[in-house]
Amino acid sequence: MSANREHFSSRIGFILAAAGSAVGIGNLVGFPVNAAKNGGGAFLLIYAIFVFLICLPVMMAEMAMGRKSQKEPVGAFTFLGGESKLWSFAGLLGVITPFMIGVFYMVITVWLFGYLVMILGGNLDYLADPSSFGTFINSGWVFLALIVVAGIVNFILLAGVKDGIEKAAKILMPSLFIMLVALVIFVLFQDNAMAGVEFFVIPEFDKITPSVVNGALSQAFFSLSLGMGILITYGSYIDKRTDIVGSAKLVAITDTAVAFTAGLMILPAVFSFNPDVNPTELSDSSVSLIFTFLPKIFLALQVSIGYVGASIVAGAFFLLVFFAAITSLVSIIEVPVSYLVTEKKFTRKKSLIALLATAGILTLFATVSFGMVAFFTEFVSYAGAPKSFFDVIYDIFYDTILPLNGLLVCLFVSYRWKQKKLSEELAEGGNNYIGSLSEKYINFALSTFIPVILLGIFLNTVAVKFF
Ligand code: VAL
After folding, report:
1. Among residues 403, 411, 413, which one has the least CA distance to residue 453?
2. What atom of ligand 1 comes closest to residue 24's alpha carbon?
3. Which residue, of 27, 189, 213, 413, has the fewest CB within 10 Å?
4. Checking DSSP bridges between strand 385-387 and strand 380-382, what pairing results, if any?
5. Cα dihedral angle (386, 387, 388, 391), rounded to 10 degrees?
6. Vertex 283, ends 257 and 97: CA angle to 5°?
7. What pLDDT, on the 0 to 100 scale, is given for residue 37?
8. Nearest-CA neighbor of 67 among 249, 234, 246, 251?
9. Ligand 1: distance of its center to the CA of 314 in Å?
10. Distance in Å, CA 24 to ligand 1 centroid
11. Measured from the CA of 27, which atom of ligand 1 is nearest?
12. How far, in Å, CA of 258 to CA of 132, rounded?
């Protein structure tokens, strides 16, 4: 164990940081709408099965790789797998992926921040007009918001693992839980809220198609921060006393519970605040839902609690999503930071400057790819349509590479690092893992059907997205 590697101060610190990474824009906003539109309770069931039977073993494998090697993805794959071109490449993908996901995640976080500030400044009525979104993202304000958000992320990461990442999670996560519960209680007591709950949970098995199943697994993978090197990196910040098996279960339960609870907030709000809205108008994209649909819903609350009241509820919602986005963004950017610190012997400060100069520029390109600069707006064309710079990063790194990275982790721990060593690592922390049903299941699943499923998703996504 490397003596000078900084570690989380406690197991709870690690769990909160990992849950902070997991709980993000994906599950707070994307999940509820996906679930409601694609079979309600039936989707929830499939999603929960995927989280626990497929994602959880991958999560444990990533954490175990990080803790055993005490390194980020590139270091972990080479340290545990020896010199091999294939596995160094897998490690490299584990660093490039979060670097690129960080670019589009940053853009959305910047918009969230902009909306939050505008709502607090009394502009909810302006934002409720869906055309305001296009105006805002093409205005100079986004650059100001970008500087502030990049500043916040830098401030947290510069302070390090314990005083930065862990401390931020310890403050932001409990605040997020409190706001979420307060909003859910408020929403559920409004008239007609139960219609939204029904829309969200009543199972409709006939809506479950192969593409819904595929979407549920991708959603679960993204939501749990898998395939992005994050949990390898966070795993390298814990010591042998931390029980990975138990901690991973808690992270998965927290993430799923937050996603479910978010559904109990968003759908009833749609039904109750603005009864004129037809729920089938709900968009599949989290982005248009947050920025063009929900402000209109919140504004309708002014009839019952006044404009200031409606702005407070909307502000609380945007603050909640912003907190979730910041703890996720921090975890995404920490992977390349950790790579530069561990492999290239940069200081944290120098790593952050290097990232600001590289990822920062790509983020600028992505920011102006919504109409401001034609070159980035119509960057390339595939699948018969022009795509912006933002779209390209999203399609490649969110949709396509994540299952590939997950597949590489499964093959690596089962066939290169070997099951016995994985089991020994997962048995640390006093959990009677060796010989348990969990051990048998995890070894079997990671070496057989999980990689097959992930390969299927990867190939299917390539075919559907790019051809
Ligand atoms: N898991 C997070 C989310 O759901 C990030 C890290 C991708 O938004």
Report:
1. 403
2. 8
3. 189
4. antiparallel
5. 160
6. 65
7. 84
8. 234
9. 22
10. 5
11. 4
12. 29
pLDDT tens-digit profile of 314-369? 999 999 999 999 999 999 999 999 999 999 999 999 999 999 999 999 999 999 99
- In this predicted structure, the answer to whether residue 284 has a pLDDT above a threshold of 70 is no
The string of pLDDT tens digits covering residues 159-181 is 999 999 999 999 999 999 999 99
* Residue indicated by tokens 């679960």: 220
CB count in 10 Å sphere of residue 73: 36
Token look-up 């093409």 returns 138
Measured in Å, residue 115 CA sits from the centre of ligand 1 at 20
Instruction: Give 398's contacts (C-beta < 8 A, 6+ positions apart).
Output: 101, 104, 222
- Tokens found for residue 455: 């390969």
Residues 50-70, mean pLDDT to the nearest whole number: 97
Atom of ligand 1 nearest to the CA of 223: 4
Written as six digits, the tokens of 219 are 């959603």
Tokens representing residue 452 in the block: 């097959």
DSSP conformation letters of 78-143: HHHH-S-HHHHHHHHHHHHHHHHHHHHHHHHHHHHHHHHHHHHTT-HHHHTSTHHHHHHHTSTHHH
Q: Which atom of ligand 1 is nearest to the CA of 224?
A: 1
Q: What separation in Å is there between the alpha carbon of 409 and the centre of ligand 1?
A: 19
CA distance 326 to 171: 12
Who lines ligand 1 at CB under 6 A?
A: 21-22, 24-27, 222-223, 225, 328, 331-332
* Tokens (6 digits) for 397: 């790194």
Under 8 Å between Cβ of 48 and 215: no
Residue with tokens 């819903």: 297
Closest listed residue to residue 69, CA positions, set 34, 94, 48, 100: 94
Which H or E element spans position 381? strand 380-382
- How many helices (H) and strands (E) are present in the chain, helices listed first? 26, 2
Query: How far lies 93's CA from each of 153, 397, 430, in Å?
Result: 23, 10, 33
User: From the CA of 221, how far away is ligand 1's center (Å)?
Assistant: 9
Where residue 274 falls among pLDDT bands split at 50, 70, 90? confident
pLDDT > 90: what percent of the chain? 83
